[in-house]
Amino acid sequence: MKKSDRPPTFKAWVRETFDGRDEPAGDFVADMKLDKAFPKRNDREAILDHLRNRHASRACIRTFKVLWYEYVLTWFDDVGEEIETVYWRQYLARRMA
Predict the structure, then answer these.
(1) Do the beta carbons of residue 72 and residue 42 sit within 8 Å?
(2) CB of 51 within 8 A of CB of 60?
(3) Any idea what DSSP says for residue 9?
(4) Which of 29, 37, 41, 53 is the most buried (most CB within 10 A)?
(5) What's the angle, vertex CA 61, arms to CA 58 and CA 63, rounded to 5?
(6) Cα–Cα separations (whole angstroms), residue 35 to 14, 44, 53
(7) Closest Cα to residue 27, out of 67, 58, 60?
(8) Alpha helices of the chain — where are they, by DSSP H?
């Protein structure tokens, strides 16, 4: 976590960062704002379960995953480095296969 900053929830961060943008992240925020049952907890799995239970498209779920990783990389430096390393290892393994 960045020094002297208390991280916002994912929901607050994504709204502040992408609301009104003409891109998939902005569409995700618009849909999230309309969904009164969107999880308030800062829990990746709870949000994924919610999206799947709502039959969200693969593009929507992919957008959420990208946003979640960006959120983690932005606010949680120590965890972000680990996630980034795992992501690149997986990416390279897929490319080399």
Answers:
(1) no
(2) yes
(3) P
(4) 29
(5) 110
(6) 14, 17, 13
(7) 60
(8) 10-18, 24-34, 44-53, 58-75, 77-96
- CB-hemisphere CA count at 13 Å for 27? 11
Please answer whether residues 46 and 39 qualify as being in contact, where contact means their C-beta atoms are separated by less than 8 angstroms: yes
How much is the pLDDT for 95? 60
Enumerate long-range contacts of 20-23, CB under 8 Å, 24 or more apart: none
| Owner of token pair 């961060």 | 13
Q: Please report, in tens digits, the pLDDT of each residue of the chain (97 residues total).
A: 444 467 889 999 999 999 999 999 999 999 999 999 999 888 999 999 999 999 999 999 999 999 998 888 888 766 555 555 666 566 566 666 5
Token pair for 54: 């709502």
